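so the lab meeting is tmrw and i was supposed to have these ready like two days ago... anyway. pasting both below. for each one the top line is the aa sequence and the line under it is the structure tokens. i havent really looked at them closely yet so no promises
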Amino acid sequence: KEMQENLLLAGLGEYLFRPELISRAFWDLSVHQINEISQAELQSRISQKMQRIRQGVDKPMQLSGWMVWAMDEGIRFSYDIISLNRGMIILDQALKEVGSSKTITNLAEDLAPKVGLGKVKDLYKKGILTKKDLLQMGWSGILSSLSPTASEPTAGRAMQCSKIYIGR
């Protein structure tokens, strides 16, 4: 369950261009004792890489590419994570060979609203994802189903008409 949440978090970080999400997820998925860099250094390097991608200097990467890149930078994942990443790469290649324009990341993005909704809500409630993130992902609809978080004061919020009782 923890691995699923971290992979979702890393994927969301890649999609939203949020280096802190990727670094947090990769750090939690790694074997801390043998990592060659610190979590702060990982986040800094991811930020630099994302900046290079935004500038068009480097090509955008999908989650499997980010994982390989992180390993090159000194992050040491468990065997299970490495095997999973290899599987994602193999599936991407198989999809390409049959002429599909889809990738594993695209398929995961298609499934995320159905499968990952509960986890995304949890990440929002924990303050890891923001309203802006949900809007950017096109998930504004789930905002109405969530109660205000500690970071969202209720004072000054607009009241919905359905909450106003007229006459009594």
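ok protien two:
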Amino acid sequence: MNINSPNLKLKKRIKINSGHSFVLNKGHACIYSPYGNASHIETINLTDPENPRSVHVLKFHNAISAITLHNGNLLAAERYRALHVIDLANPDAPVLKDSIPLYDFVLSGIAARGDYAYASIEWGKRIGVFDIKSTFQIQPVESIEFDKSNYEIVPYEETFFTLDGKNTLVEIQIKSGKPEIKKTYFINEFKSDKFFIGKNRIYLFGENKNSNLLVLDLKNPETVIASGNSESEPASILQTDKNSAIILHKSYTCSMFDEKLGVTTPLFRFYEEDNENEFRGYIEVPLQDGKTVFPEGDVKLTCMNEISHAVRDGKYLYTVNVNEFMVWEILKGSVFEDVEEITDING
């Protein structure tokens, strides 16, 4: 690994309708936007990663607030309207198979086990259980309320994680179809409203007197592995197999967090040629001692749009930034070679 060498080569960028996140399924990306009013799910065919194609757009009346993969289907929450079951048997052409009415509320995070979906309702005020096979039943069939909560619900093995308030991580289990709190983890003096889950880590972004990034052991969240500072809000955190993590910031910057040292090192910024061509050249501008080192010559550069979600799959990194889906080749010696390949549970 050489942090001073180029890390990524932009292979392809294609225009999309609108998207902030995606999940991968059988060589396809299902893209949606949990923010704003994007009322569609767009499918990108990635069977030839260097030639991605937009092959399908499934449209709805209202915005799509959350999606998850489950048993060959895609579950999609349409705001104030329905929880949809979408058949992915033909990934090039997803088909709406069934719908559960939501009776005028919003699901803002969703996961599934067996015949049930579990979702954060009305931005985390409660977590509900939805029977996927009983579309005519009044739903949710069960729920658990929180005084304060986070809109995210993230699955891990047979449990789920969410944030209750600003400094409490909650692990939820399902017993006899009912959600209940398995354990509550109080994070002393650390206020967080955003978290990411890696292969065996929980990354909390927030604040206390000394740091804004906290790393917990996923199997035992009471164990704090490391703490440090991120220069700005992360868009994605990608765990590596070297006791570190790659942070893609909303400030179009890439940095590395070292768990042993508790130090974040800025690596580079994403720039592109300032022209109107369909394929604008990507320029990886390194950072040294926190300063941007621009290339010599008369090349006009502009900042790339912020990356809002990223997933590694083999030698490729897939990213989305609102109006573009991008395919990057991970170069030899790149910091991204150490990124763990895990199921995209944050999509």
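from a quick look at the 2nd one: The two ends are 28 Å apart (CA to CA). Confidence is low (pLDDT under 50) at residues 343-347. will dig more after coffe
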